[in-house]
What we know:
The structure holds two protein chains of two kinds.
Chain A: H1 6-19, H2 30-33, H3 38-56, H4 58-64, H5 66-79, H6 94-100, H7 110-125, H8 136-142, E1 148-152, E2 157-161, H9 166-174, E3 188-193, E4 200-204, H10 206-216, H11 221-231, H12 237-247, E5 250-255
Antiparallel strand pairs in A: 1-5, 2-3, 3-4
Helix pairs in contact in A: 3-5, 4-5, 4-9, 6-7, 7-9, 10-11
Chain B: E1 7-10, H1 16-21, E2 29-31, H2 42-53, E3 56-59, H3 73-86, E4 90-94, E5 97-100, E6 103-109, H4 115-132, E7 137-139, H5 154-165, E8 168-172, H6 173-183, H7 187-193, E9 199-205, E10 208-210, E11 214-219, H8 228-241, E12 246-249, H9 257-278
Parallel strand pairs in B: 1-2, 1-12, 2-3, 3-4, 4-7, 7-8, 8-9, 9-12
Antiparallel strand pairs in B: 5-6, 10-11
Helix pairs in contact in B: 4-5, 7-8, 8-9
Amino acid sequence: MISAGALSRFQGDFAQALLATDGLSPPAMAAVTAQPAFAVYRNTVLKGCIDALQANYPAITRLVGEEWMRAAAAVYARDALPGQPMLLQYGADFGDFLTQFEPAAELPYLPGVAHLDRYWTEAHAAASEDTLVPAAAAQLARSNFFRVRLQPHAATRWAWFANAPIYTIWSRNRSDDTVDGDIDWHAEGALLTRPQDAVQWRAIDEAGCAFLDTCTSGGSVADAAQAALEVQSDADLGRLISVLLEAGAFSRLHIDA
Amino acid sequence: MTHFLDAGLGLKPPHFDAALDCSAAGLWFEVHPENYMVDGGPRLSWLEAIRGKHPISLHGVALSLAADAEPDAVHLRRLAELVRRIEPALVSEHLAWSTWRGAYHPDLLPFPRTTQALTRIADNVSRAQDALQRRIAIENPSHYLKLDGHEWAETEFLQELASRAGCGLLLDVNNVYVSASNMGYSAEDYIDAFPAEPVMEIHLAGHAPDPNLGKALLVDSHDAPVSPEVWALYERLIQRIGTRPTLIERDDNLPEFAALLAEREHAATVLRGNLAEAA
């Protein structure tokens, strides 16, 4: 006779045993973990997590090598199994994990690169929306900037890195192409967009990031322009807006009544 | 029961273009829905393009229907959204669990087949079918471990599950071969005992010996062609139950698309041979 709750107890014990190091499995699992075949489950679960993290962080993997990446991923996975089964979304905070990960201390640019790998995934999987075409610039030019708002596309992501050329490091390691040449150590930003159903990226300046920050919080074009000029007084606003439009950074233009 | 399809192929991204171009009669494709539960973008575009030319089967790996907990509401809602969008010909899941207390274990985990488990799983399958508004097929898993406490033979458990929940079954012949070898029972007996009427789909795949334990432990690796032993079991099954949609499942060590099409043609030939015999 199996008492009510036996299935729950079995699953709790089995789940604990999957991640337990030798000798620390629940006693009720002794007959299970003693079988060599239990390793098939242990290995499959951990490998599934590590494979997903490696796939989701390709620039990190290229920078540090597969062996280092898989070792780091194993440490991460043992502490944080996926919270849901869509493994494309697994490891959203892997960049934050790397800031605390002792072996990564000598590579201070890794967390930033991881954030851009994560932004690529977010851009790739974001909702489909129309993209505001560059011709909208003409309409914009005729409008009252205080009443016009530009809405960033659901797939648009951007970040400003004040301390390191994260965009250059990331973009050189995101593809299989070999790009030689020294990296000029300077602050830079990244813009990721998905204009034709494929993620694209380009460098962006601090003014562009400030402009997009203001747009996304609902500010008008005038507000966004002011924010851009505050961080970069010599910003060329006409060029800034046309670069963003050409990248497909926006989905809609609202004109407030 | 409508048998709309003959033989199909598991579809992986490297073969998307070849799949789009292929016009083989009766061909259908199966994918894991978890890879397409996104808000938008290229993944959905790819799947919709394939769906525009071929029937699709959604083969879930993560509903965790054998967990002693209701299926995750968010996951079920996203699956239902994908089902509405893709209008798949078939939807299937596994007699296994993977999510426990909010943690997803990327594997298909075993459990003792008790009456308590049967009651819980039948309820979970009913909830899933209600949410998806369709009958789904539940697949027999591969077994590696000897567990204490089984109260039901797997074929009888599945028959009772199909009866209680009104679900269909997916018979994975390779899983039968692997499990029989690992657990030490007769694969032929299992195939002969499997309830015929609820079978909505059949899976065929390759397996491999465990890298450490060798042939003492076969692993359902999906990284090799279907073995001759599994083909023989398949022919034995089709002779008894008649034609059913049959999938060549390949997830790893992907060959050229043409090689998979040739395996798929092998299955189609078995199905057509059965139809000719029955005529």
